Amino acid sequence: MDITRRGFLHLSGAVGSGIALSTLGINLKPTRAYADELNKMNRVKAAKQVTTICCYCSVGCGLVCSVDKMTGKIFNIEGDADHPINEGSLCAKGAGFFDLTEANKHRLTKVLYRAPMSDKWEEKDWDWTLKRIARLVKDTRDAGFVKTNAKGEVVNRCETIGHLGSSNVDNEECWLMSVKCRALGLVYIDHQARV
Ligand code: SF4
Fold it and tell me: N or C: where does the chain have the smaller number of CB atoms within 10 Å of the terminal CB?
């Protein structure tokens, strides 16, 4: 309950009298969340607004990116209310757009590998990872490559690997993936957006 004058001024300067009340045992989480939201709204109002289009599917929803004028970094992305297609709304993928930026501290930045039968994740570098992927793809493809079908017709297809695309790849990445899959002879190719 004790609070020094200096401490009180410091706390009250942060979000008004709200935080000081927490020393009386009052739950101020909603107050803090509201203060954070107000702070964010003020930042959005003062930011440079840049419009763009969501890259994740052919609907092409409009987005507004708020860019901090001081740092040049985007700190908020939301649906564009003036856009004729989505009128401000976004699906879950589009609504989570900002979390895919570097601002998301929980974003995975390293390769994590769990060996067969292991219950532990290990950090791996990309050299190791790419060699491992290439080895597994080659071995699996060799084991299931079919040159001709039952009628003796040339088919050159791989029946032991399937590919399901991610929801977080854009149109150009999808094109690259499908070209890679077809070059390997895959026939079981699908994508989350179609499913
Ligand atoms: S992924 Fe969602 S937000 Fe993005 S364009 Fe498609 S419908 Fe719109």
Answer: N
